[in-house]
Structure formats: structure tokens, C-alpha cells
Specification:
The protein is of the alpha+beta class and 148 residues long. Helix content is 28%, strand content 45%. It contains 4 helices and 7 strands; from the N terminus they run βααββββββαα.
């Protein structure tokens, strides 16, 4: 993979509350940087959202429109949501984890990705931008949930 970045933040709420909101694709546009649309385009085998479900997102990043589909590879609320891209401009692996912390929830987003062309050439800049973006995501997640 060309990039492997993560961001972490302690959110002063229980993991169940944080994960319930963050793992719901219907909230993606409210707290995730650059995402303009998110749609459940394939349900899990048992129906609804879970392993095998696919979410199609349209985002803008570094001035470019990016359309991609993430498939849920692992889903263990309130602890883990792991997704891999199955369509889009570059391979991507996005992992959300939520662990109990004495101050609330230790939230982490990890993004791994790579690809050719523009994305390989721009990897150092891309990694910095992604790290900044997911850091803002966690900040916005906290603000949305705490009202601060």
C-alpha cells in the first residue's frame, strides 16, 4: 500500500453511542470530510448493514471528484467496522475502531491505500492530506455527538 495513516481521539461518550452513530452510513456526509453522498447499494447477506454490505460514496479530495464503493469486511459493533474498496480510483482499506477508555471512547480511523498514476506520485502529499482529513473527521464526530 502506498499510504498507511491513522488518527485517534478520545470522545467523552460511551463506545456504544459513538459507534452507533459513526458506523451508520446514513451519517457519513455529516461528519466525514469531503463526502457529498453515501448510499447503501448492496445489503449484507442477512439484510441491512453488515459483512458483505456495500456503500457507494462520492467525495471530493484534493480538488478531484472520487466515486468509490466500500464493502464491509468486518462488522463487530460497537468495536469495529472494517471496509475495503471494491470499485474506485485506487485500492483502499478503511478501519474504524472504538474502544472503552476511562474518559469515554478511544476512537481510531486507519486508512490504507495505494494505486498507480496520480495517486502513486502524490503519495507523500496524499498521506498528509488523508491524516489531516481523518483527524478532522474525529473532531467533527465528537462535536456532532456532544454538541460542542
Amino acid at each position: 500500500m502506498t499510504i498507511d495513516v491513522s488518527a485517534e481521539r478520545v470522545i467523552p461518550l460511551p463506545p456504544e453511542r459513538v459507534a452507533e452513530y459513526a458506523m451508520d452510513w446514513r451519517h457519513d456526509t455529516e461528519w466525514t470530510q469531503g463526502i457529498r453522498t453515501a448510499e447503501l447499494t448492496r445489503e449484507a447477506d442477512q439484510g441491512g448493514f453488515g459483512v458483505g454490505a456495500e456503500v457507494t460514496r462520492t467525495a471530493y479530495f484534493l480538488g478531484r471528484r472520487i466515486d468509490y464503493v466500500l464493502r464491509v469486511a468486518a462488522y463487530a459493533p460497537p468495536r469495529l467496522l472494517d471496509m475495503v474498496s471494491v470499485a474506485g480510483p485506487m485500492p483502499m482499506h478503511v478501519t474504524y475502531t472504538f474502544e472503552p477508555d476511562p474518559r469515554g471512547t478511544f476512537a481510531r480511523i486507519r486508512v490504507r491505500g495505494g494505486g498507480g498514476g496520480f495517486y502513486r506520485l502524490a503519495a507523500p502529499v496524499l498521506a498528509r492530506q488523508v491524516r489531516s482529513s481523518i483527524g478532522k473527521d474525529l473532531r467533527d464526530l465528537e462535536h456532532r455527538l456532544t454538541g460542542q
